[in-house]
Design goal:
OB fold (Dihydrolipoamide Acetyltransferase, E2P); about 5% helix; mainly beta; five-stranded mixed β-barrel; 5 strands; about 100 residues
Length: about 100
């Protein structure tokens, strides 16, 4: 799968939050996607996942700073980096509840 430059602004709920065994600098947040909006002229590759869950890699420092836990509602800018591989933008994530 060839990945193009992409970003999506996602609103959703953190369903699970686990350490990332392959990269300890990131946690893996399972997020149920309630909405996925386009960001500027970037492709929106997450819109097809509205209503589903995606595993988003979030820097551990951001998880700690925000106090993210399962059950939190979030707004997060996400890019798809491969098949079922998503990363958050470290400066564009916030809890909404």
């Amino acid at each position: 799968m060839q990945i193009i430059e992409n970003w999506s602004d996602v609103e959703g709920e953190v369903k699970d939050l686990l350490p990332n065994a392959s990269d300890p600098d990131f946690a893996v947040a399972t997020v149920k996607v309630n909405a996925a909006a386009s960001v500027g002229s970037f492709a929106n590759l997450v819109s097809k996942n509205v209503g589903n869950e995606i595993a988003v890699r979030v820097p551990v420092a951001v998880v700690q700073r925000l106090g993210l836990t399962p059950g939190n509602r979030v707004r997060v800018r996400v890019r798809q980096a491969g098949v079922d591989k998503y990363f958050s933008h470290p400066e564009a994530i916030e809890k909404v509840s």
